[in-house]
Design goal:
The protein has about 280 residues and is α/β, with parallel strands linked by helices. It contains 10 helices and 9 strands. The chain has 2 domains: about 170 residues, Rossmann fold (3-Layer(aba) Sandwich); about 90 residues, 2-Layer Sandwich (Pantoate--beta-alanine Ligase, Chain: A,domain 2), CATH 3.30.1300. The strands form 2 sheets. The chain has a 6-stranded parallel beta sheet, with helices on both faces. Strand 2, helix 2 and strand 3 form a beta-alpha-beta unit. The protein is globular.
Length: about 280
């Protein structure tokens, strides 16, 4: 596996891979890789001849009271895991490589509307940081395909909108959420969970399953279902930010005729904030 730390090193290696009949797939990550990340790489290997993975903990997507300084870093283990799944190149830029004039002076890529709801309400600067850094990475790697997990469902839709709006010739593939045996969605932040908090955490997905069951039974009082789910999370020991039922295509509030839905939730167990979602087809 090749390792590049600068855009110049990345381009030097990749110029040998750009052939008319070959495709390059890209998996952007913040490291501390788990089985969910590796599933993204396996998908990328299945759809492209070469796979590039980046590890970059992006300061721009963290709020002032969030966990940027303590975000888990496991580079040696990450490199070994990527070699096991046959990634072709690991891109390891530093902050100066992606933000040459500093984070506060960079051009910002904003996806209006989608960036301000749900997660955007609770983390107002988060998605501008995500779309800005992903646009920078796309420009550096210039992939044919980029692969994202469905656990960050709102992020996935924002990236798809950004690519369409900016006419980027990149196909966005998504991969289903990988879960622990008790249903907890795999996340790098799960390493913060311990003891009782870890037991509580599994109830987030169970609550979403319960929402799914109620919707599949024919109930359409979306506000009532959301409130019941918030109460269920509180009784389990969470401090919940939201449970919201939305139209799957664009995260708008669903109307009477909408049958493709997604239920999304964010809640804190102990000191660890978790997000999850579940797609629901009521056809």
């Amino acid at each position: 596996m090749h390792v590049a730390r600068t855009g110049a090193q990345l381009r030097e290696q990749m110029q040998h891979w750009r052939e008319p009949d070959s495709r390059i797939a890209f998996v952007p990550t913040m490291g501390n890789l788990h089985a969910g990340h590796l599933q993204l790489v396996r998908h990328a290997k299945a759809v492209a001849g070469r796979v590039v993975v980046s590890i970059f903990v992006n300061p721009m997507q963290f709020g002032p009271q969030e966990d940027f300084a303590r975000y888990p870093k496991t580079l040696e283990a990450d490199q070994a895991a990527l070699m096991d799944v046959d990634a072709d190149l690991l891109f390891l830029p530093d902050v100066a490589e992606l933000y040459p004039d500093g984070v506060g002076q960079t051009t910002v890529v904003e996806v209006p509307g989608l960036n301000a709801i749900l997660e955007g309400e609770h983390r107002p600067t988060h998605f501008n940081g995500v779309t800005t850094v992903v646009a920078k990475l796309f420009n550096q790697v210039q992939p044919d395909i980029a692969v994202f997990g469905e656990k960050d469902y709102q992020q996935l839709l924002l990236i798809r909108r950004m690519v369409a709006d900016l006419c980027m010739p990149i196909r966005i593939d998504s991969v289903a959420t990988v879960r622990e045996p008790d249903g907890l969605a795999m996340s790098s932040r799960n390493s913060y969970l311990a003891g009782a908090d870890r037991m509580i955490a599994a109830q987030l997905y169970q609550t979403l399953l319960d929402v799914q069951g109620i919707l599949l039974s024919g109930e359409r009082d979306f506000a009532g279902i959301e409130q019941a789910a918030l109460l269920q999370l509180a009784e389990a020991g969470f401090t919940a930010d939201y449970v919201s039922i939305r139209r799957a295509s664009d995260l708008a509030r669903p109307g009477p005729g909408d049958s493709e839905l997604v239920a999304l939730a964010a809640a804190v167990a102990g000191r660890t904030r978790l997000i999850d979602n579940i797609r629901i087809s009521t056809v």
